[in-house]
């Protein structure tokens, strides 16, 4: 706590006091080379820190409809991934993957849960089941 207090109350204000920001626009012309280096370095550090702080949120919320690649590693050696499954081979209930993260493609292996948690998505499988007949 003492370190935080020192940084916030003493070190940062002391450093900021020495940043050569002119009081007027014309003051920029009176800065020495060393002051310019200091000012540029300070501006780059503040800009970089701001960029790093905002970038994750920008990436997440900027353009949700931006085209993204779904298939990261399933059969990347073929032009199109498709599967043919005979209806007769389906059991009573079959879960097909729709998130493109399953290791048992084209079937769901639950990998969508980790995907959803990682990126705030809500995808899940396509469930095909035989009609329940009564009687
Ligand atoms: S693993 Fe992809 S939907 Fe379940």
Automatic annotation (TrEMBL):
Top-level taxonomy: Eukaryota, Metazoa, Chordata, Tunicata, Ascidiacea
Residues annotated as domain Iron-binding zinc finger CDGSH type: 80-118
Keyword annotations of the record: 2Fe-2S, Endoplasmic reticulum, Iron, Iron-sulfur, Membrane, Metal-binding, Transmembrane, Transmembrane helix
Cofactor: [2Fe-2S] cluster
Keyword Transmembrane in annotation: yes
Gene3D superfamilies reported in the protein's UniProt record: CDGSH iron-sulfur domain, mitoNEET-type
Cofactor note as given: Binds 1 [2Fe-2S] cluster.
TM region positions: 36-54
Family per record: Belongs to the CISD protein family. CISD2 subfamily.
Location relative to the cell: Endoplasmic reticulum membrane; Membrane
Its membrane topology: Single-pass membrane protein
Superkingdom per UniProt: Eukaryota
Species this chain originates from: Clavelina lepadiformis
Protein name: CDGSH iron-sulfur domain-containing protein 2 homologue
């Amino acid at each position: 706590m003492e370190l935080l207090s020192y940084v916030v109350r003493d070190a940062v204000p002391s450093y900021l006091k020495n940043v050569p920001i002119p009081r007027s626009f014309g003051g920029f012309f009176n800065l020495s080379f060393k002051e310019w280096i200091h000012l540029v370095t300070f501006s780059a550090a503040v800009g970089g820190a701001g960029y790093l702080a905002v970038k994750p949120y920008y990436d997440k919320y900027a353009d949700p409809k931006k085209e993204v690649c779904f298939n990261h590693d399933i059969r990347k050696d073929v032009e199109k991934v498709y599967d043919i499954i005979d209806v007769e081979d389906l059991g009573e209930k079959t879960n097909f993957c729709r998130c493109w993260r399953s290791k048992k493609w084209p079937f769901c292996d639950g990998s969508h849960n980790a995907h959803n948690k990682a990126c705030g998505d809500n995808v899940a499988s396509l469930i095909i089941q035989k009609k329940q007949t009564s009687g």
